[in-house]
Amino acid sequence: MTIIHDNEVTGLQVKTKDGDWISVEPSGSTFLVMAGDAFLACSNGRIHSPIHRVIATEAEKEKYSLAFFSFSGEIIQTPKELVDEAYSLLLKPFHNMDLLRLFSLDDVQKYIDFISQAKCRA
């Protein structure tokens, strides 16, 4: 999960389903919450992590970023309550720590491949 307070500085963009990038308008009084990849499994495909980026802007204020990753070391899997005739099991269970190891690699393609495999039907 990502929690963002933009300090009224522009630059955050989110990719739409159509592949377009849209800018997120900053607001000094709000926090933006974005789901992480594990939410895809926890919600059986109902919650997706957004593809996002931060572009350099000529802002009058400085922009700071801090990344903090928290992992439980557990297997990520869809709760049985979210699997039924309307929503068949979407993702195979995967070990949460495997995501952490992939984040530490320089090869981002390995992370993309892992998520793609995890998104295969069980």
TrEMBL record:
Transmembrane regions: none
Matching Gene3D superfamilies: B-lactam Antibiotic, Isopenicillin N Synthase, Chain
Annotated ranges, domain Fe2OG dioxygenase: 1-72
PANTHER family the record matches: 2-OXOGLUTARATE (2OG) AND FE(II)-DEPENDENT OXYGENASE SUPERFAMILY PROTEIN-RELATED (PTHR47990)
Protein name: Structural maintenance of chromosomes protein 2-1-like
Organism of derivation: Hibiscus syriacus
